[in-house]
Design goal:
Blueprint lengths: L8 H16 L27 H7 L10 H4 L6 E13 L1 H8 L4 E15 L3 E11 L3 E10 L3 E15 L18 E15 L6 E23 L8 E25 L2 E22 L7 E23 L4 E23 L16 E25 L2 E24 L6 E24 L5 E21 L7 E21 L2 E18 L12 E20 L2 E21 L2 E25 L2 E15 L15 E2 L2 E13 L2 E13 L14 E14 L4 E14 L8 E13 L1
């Protein structure tokens, strides 16, 4: 099922047209000197932003530089790059799009452009952007800056993120469902305008308006149910999806000034958020109990924030800074959850497969948040720095709603009116102290301690109590974190770094209504979280042409839980989880010849989660210990045939072997997958004004968890031409 989307074509085509007119029309004034970060005087390749579209969104080639064009192209500060290509996918196209953030089939257009001209005596106008049709990736940024007056900037961005709507897989009878198109996507848009007044010896004023939106469909983890498996047990593997329609308007104004030795900043922010989101579940397809569930969620949030900060340098030894923010948010919500013979149908009192839903949801609430912090930087002696700080935050929120619970059909149909309210508050006070010492030759040391105290209450009440027990729970938390680290530089070509931290969080809960509540989190009495983390890093320039970086991380965490679930009888001191992570990273860069470089990197991760429930009597593999071990390899090579032609090769590999088939008792989990990709890019500098490139890529994915539903083989071909002027 597809829903119609508004593509905002007017804004998209306007952005591309403005960019094309600018870069293809010869400027009538002298080209400006290269801006900081521009390629002029350094290389013929545009900066990193110029390849953002093809590299990040399409895996298209990044134009490569040549050694002779840097100086000869120093006066060519403008450029435009056109590209065209396509991907050819055999297998799950939705998974390919999701993993590589690109479309299938042809795409291309304006890969990148940059232009700049002088305006008046002190002004500069620049334009940057790209427009990739087919891949739905558009961007335009305009900037008019006068160093003595201020600036006006504007931009528009629209890009697409893809999602794979494939559901679950039950291996005992190879059961899976594909009830609708699994190639889902969300279109994200951002338009903004900003102006700043930067007159000498006066405060700096800035104003910014920003518009954001998300629109489309994405997969949901709330899968629908089926009993079409051996034994007829209810299992949730039927794919579902979400419909997204969200907008946000943001208005921001700031003023900055320096008063004596104090820099001050004061600003306001007003935000208007609107969302009309839906979840679509297909229950029991191909069965007599088949039903379509549509849940609509409407929400409106109006948010207003006042914030400010100061920084005062009393002298070289003492710097003091402060910050605060006050935020209020008003919320309105409505919605429904309806069973029917199709999606988006009205409530029918006679629908035979009607389940537990609701209609006429109306509610709203208010949230207030207050944050303040103070920081002091002290340098009592040379090479020794202390930074004590304190932070305070208080948040309180309340929410009320009313709705009608619906169930049954025909003569058994019932609609019961219900109301509910929720009230939460918490307060946090955090103190910290950091220290750094660099007074020893070839050494630097740092340490820190952070303490936080939190208090809060969460409660909800419904009348009558239908789906949730009334709840009122106080909680408190004490958090501590100690950090130590050092860097050692024994040789110019060799250095080591190490860090260790120990973190504790102790929670205490008090159930004010029912001390024997069996529902989570009402039965909790106490929880302790403990984490120890250590890492060590070595960087070694082994040869003038060979550098190595090695890093090892170890993290050990435990969770201890005390509860009161058994008639008020304390159940205490259970180590409810043990989490162990080992991460090993290695990278090497070798340049055996002036025209050849080789890079190789890899990581190996060992991640385990153990819980006593997994080994308890009667569990019978219903709950398993977790394992998330995987390793990756990344390699690249570049060869320069001559000063105008060079070749770049890239390879990446991912492997995870954690799949456990416990289908007789539960839905199998754990990653079991292999991913491979290899690309080759050939670049040729035809002249100082013209550069061409050709890229080919091959991608393979094999996924055991989905029963092969997510497998694919894909190929990419992409060509581009860059013109500089």
């Amino acid at each position: 099922m597809k829903t119609p989307f508004k593509l905002h074509n007017t804004f998209r085509y306007l952005a591309i047209t403005v960019g094309l007119v600018f870069v293809l029309t010869p400027p009538s004034v002298t080209a400006a000197p290269a801006l900081e970060g521009s390629p002029a005087g350094t290389a013929s390749t545009p900066p990193a932003a110029s390849s953002a579209a093809p590299a990040a969104k399409t895996d298209a080639p990044v134009p490569a530089s040549t050694t002779d064009s840097a100086s000869s192209s120093a006066d060519l500060t403008n450029w435009v790059t056109f590209g065209v290509g396509g991907t050819f996918v055999n297998g799950d196209k939705g998974q390919f799009k999701h993993q590589h953030d690109t479309t299938t089939g042809p795409f291309g257009g304006l890969e990148d452009f940059h232009g700049q001209i002088l305006v008046g005596k002190d002004g500069t106008f620049t334009a940057d952007g790209h427009g990739i049709f087919g891949n739905h990736d558009y961007d335009l940024k305009l900037d008019l800056t006068d160093e003595k007056l201020g600036y006006v900037r504007a931009g528009f961005t629209e890009y697409r993120t893809w999602y794979d709507g494939t559901g679950g897989f039950y291996p005992l009878n190879s059961l899976s469902f594909q009830p609708y198109d699994n190639e889902l996507y969300i279109d994200r848009r951002n338009a903004w305008v900003e102006a700043g007044l930067t007159l000498p010896d006066l405060p700096v004023f800035t104003f910014r308006y920003e518009y954001n939106s998300r629109e489309g469909q994405m997969d949901s983890t709330s899968w629908g149910q089926t009993t079409l498996i051996p034994g007829g047990t209810q299992t949730r593997i039927v794919p579902s999806f979400q419909g997204i329609d969200e907008t946000r308007h943001i208005f921001m104004a700031d003023v900055k000034d320096k008063i004596d030795s104090t820099n001050a900043d004061l600003g306001v922010r007003y935000e208007i958020d609107r969302s009309d989101d839906s979840t679509y579940l297909n229950q029991s397809p191909n069965q007599a109990a088949h039903a379509f569930i549509t849940q609509r969620n409407f929400e409106k949030n109006d948010l207003f924030t006042v914030h400010g900060s100061t920084e005062t340098a009393f002298d070289k030894m003492v710097t003091y800074s402060t910050g605060f923010s006050v935020t209020t948010m008003d919320t309105e919500m409505s919605g429904n959850r309806i069973y029917g013979p199709a999606f988006n149908t009205p409530l029918s009192t006679t629908f035979v497969n009607n389940g537990s839903g609701f209609v006429n949801l109306n509610g709203g609430g208010n949230t207030k948040d207050y944050v303040g912090n103070m920081n002091l930087m002290l340098t009592p002696i040379k090479d020794l720095v202390f930074v004590p700080a304190v932070r305070f935050e208080y948040e309180g929120s309340s929410l009320t709603d009313s709705f009608n619970n619906t169930s049954g059909h025909g003569g058994t149909f019932a609609s019961v009116s219900e109301s509910a309210n929720m009230n939460n508050w918490y307060m946090d006070v955090t103190e910290s102290l950091e220290a750094r010492y660099t007074g020893l030759r070839d050494w630097s040391f740092y340490a820190g301690v952070e303490s936080s105290e939190d208090w809060g209450n969460q409660s909800w009440n419904s009348n009558p109590v239908l789906n949730q027990v009334n709840f009122d729970q106080d909680w408190s938390r004490l958090g501590l974190k100690f950090t130590f680290g050092a860097n050692w530089y024994p040789l110019p070509q060799l250095n080591f770094g190490t860090q260790y931290y120990h973190e504790l969080h102790d929670y205490n809960y008090t159930n004010n209504l029912n001390p024997t509540l069996v529902q989570y989190p009402g039965y909790l009495w106490k929880q302790n979280f403990s984490t120890d983390d250590m890492n060590i890093r070595a960087t070694w320039q082994a040869l003038s042409t060979l550098s190595l970086i090695t890093r090892y991380d170890l993290q050990f965490s435990t969770v201890d839980t005390w509860g009161l679930p058994n008639g008020g009888t304390q159940v205490g001191g259970v180590e409810s989880a043990t989490i162990i992570n080992h991460v090993i990273n290695e990278s090497a860069t070798w340049t055996p010849l002036a025209c050849l470089y080789l890079q190789l990197g890899g990581s190996y991760v060992l991640n385990t989660l153990e819980t006593p429930v997994a080994g308890s009597a009667g569990i019978n593999n219903l709950v398993l210990n977790g394992s998330n071990n995987y390793w990756t390899v990344d390699a690249s090579a570049g060869y320069e045939f001559n000063e105008k032609t060079h070749l770049q090769l890239q390879y990446s590999y991912y492997n995870a072997e954690n799949y456990v088939n416990n289908a007789p008792t539960s839905l199998p989990f754990g990653a079991g997958a292999q991913e491979n990709s290899v690309t080759a890019t050939l670049t040729r500098q035809l002249s100082k004004e013209v550069q061409v490139s050709l890229k080919y890529g091959f991608y393979r994915n094999r996924d055991q968890t989905s029963g092969g539903q997510n497998n694919y083989d894909a190929q990419l071909v992409y060509m581009s031409t860059q013109l500089r002027f």
